[in-house]
Write a structure and sequence with these properties.
This protein is of the alpha/beta class. It is built from 20 helices and twelve strands. Helix 17 packs across helix 19. The longest helix is centred in the first third of the chain and has 25 residues.
């Protein structure tokens, strides 16, 4: 018994202390009793027994998962028979919420979504045509991925009567830790914070067990990469997950058969509609040319359009013609932000994508940003950066996966004016750092 206790490892108690996963008293109680134990106990006990029996790691993993599958089936059956029963720990069951506690955690619906009607219809048809459980909304910075996903999710709420969960996978400091994201999701399923398993994979087991037999929609917003997302996917047959990311998430498409929707910039007409919805009509009289130029300067990107429109609306006395002239300056464009709203800064959004790049990709991004025009070929990029063609191809792929460049033809790419301005800013900052380093040396 002492050996099994050692092999079972440790878990986290309700007060946060590390404790043995297989204390003798718990093992004795479980083996004598007739209540279903916690999944953490099943996992630790089966693993310890198999390891003690000399089974190889792959066999241990396979058999443990088989026992957990039996546990999930029993747990679901018990929940359906007696939703008010006590859990193995003696607490009132939180795993099956009452009707009044069905989670509806979607953010405020985005009623006004100019130029996305056809894309929303395509998204609806995608769900009807394919049995995939994972849908990915991808696109460049500021293209409106979150707004689109939230609008789409609200259109589907009637199909998911057991609730809708939402978690923003990015906080003020960067990508949200997967353990914290699981804590948010488990909280939405009625699991108290002090009842969350301490180990990440046991949290995953708990999450998947709770959601397995429900009709639920999960929205994972602002995902960083596939490693962050994969443990959070709703695996139940009747569950669906919508993921938004500026990363193309090719891993989810390849391994989880995710269906990908890629959002492009708005049409010029839709972009003008976005501006006109915020700027008072009196400032748009005989100003169609200025409106169209502002839409073009903003790259037809919804975020940039809204930031620019609100920036003007805050100080309309300057006149729209003067405001458009100021936006021709790259520095003014990059500085677009809303006072008192840390989540509405164009520069901060670009910095987030830039920080995710490796050193070589950052350097390459800076150098192609120095081109006189936004278009370039792989050969031109390689020559400018002073690297082999194969390396330019690889680095262009890295930038493309983050939607920092866009392929427009065979071996031809382009960079949006806003991104080009940002790349030049980063190049100047890098040059200044190198100059200071030389001065100190």
């Amino acid at each position: 018994m002492r050996r099994l206790q050692q092999l079972g490892g440790q878990t986290k108690a309700a007060n946060g202390d590390k404790v043995d996963a297989l204390p003798r008293s718990t093992v004795s109680t479980v083996l004598r009793g007739n209540k279903l134990p916690r999944s953490e106990f099943v996992s630790a006990f089966v693993t310890a027994c198999l390891v003690y029996g000399g089974q190889p790691p792959e066999k241990v993993a396979e058999e443990t998962e088989r026992w957990l599958a039996h546990w999930r089936a029993l747990y679901a059956a018990e929940a359906r028979e007696d939703p008010e029963a006590e859990t193995p720990r003696g607490d009132r069951r939180t795993e099956t919420p009452k009707a009044g506690s069905v989670p509806h955690h979607l953010p405020l619906d985005v009623r006004f979504l100019a130029g996305r009607g056809a894309m929303l219809k395509a998204a609806d048809e995608l769900v009807q045509r394919h049995r995939s459980s994972v849908f990915l909304v991808s696109g460049p910075v500021g293209v409106g991925k979150s707004a689109f996903a939230i609008r789409w999710a609200h259109r589907m709420v009637d199909d998911f009567p057991d609730g809708q969960l939402y978690v923003d996978l990015r906080d003020a400091y960067g990508p949200l830790d997967t353990e914290r994201a699981l804590e948010v999701l488990l909280g939405g399923l009625g699991v108290r914070e002090d009842d969350c398993p301490g180990d990440q994979w046991r949290r995953v087991e708990r999450y998947r067990s709770l959601i397995a037999h429900r009709r639920m929609l999960v929205v994972l917003d602002n995902a960083s990469d596939t490693d962050q997302v994969r443990p959070l996917l709703a695996t139940g047959e009747h569950c669906r997950t919508i993921v938004t990311s500026r990363n193309r998430m090719s891993g989810l498409v390849a391994r989880e058969a995710a269906r990908r929707l890629t959002l492009d910039v708005l049409s010029p007409e839709a972009a003008c509609t976005v501006l006109s919805a915020i700027i008072d009509r009196e400032h748009l009289v005989n100003a169609r040319a200025e409106l169209e130029e502002l839409a073009e300067l903003c790259g037809y990107l919804p975020l940039v359009l809204r930031l620019a429109a609100v920036k003007f609306a805050d100080r309309p006395g300057q006149g729209l013609k003067h405001f458009v002239r100021t936006m021709r300056d790259d520095g003014q464009l990059l500085s677009l932000a809303l006072d008192g709203d840390r989540g509405s800064s164009l520069r901060a959004e670009l910095e987030f994508s830039y920080r995710r790049l490796g050193i070589e990709a950052k350097s390459y991004f800076q150098k192609i940003g120095l081109l006189d025009d936004a278009g370039f070929t792989l050969e031109r990029g390689a020559a400018l950066a002073g690297i082999p063609l194969a390396e330019a191809d690889r680095l262009t792929g890295v930038l493309e996966s983050e939607h920092l460049v866009t392929e427009v033809g065979r071996r031809r790419f382009t960079m949006h004016r806003m991104l080009q301005a940002f790349a030049r800013t980063k190049a100047r900052e890098q040059a200044a750092r190198e100059t200071r380093t030389l001065a100190v040396a």
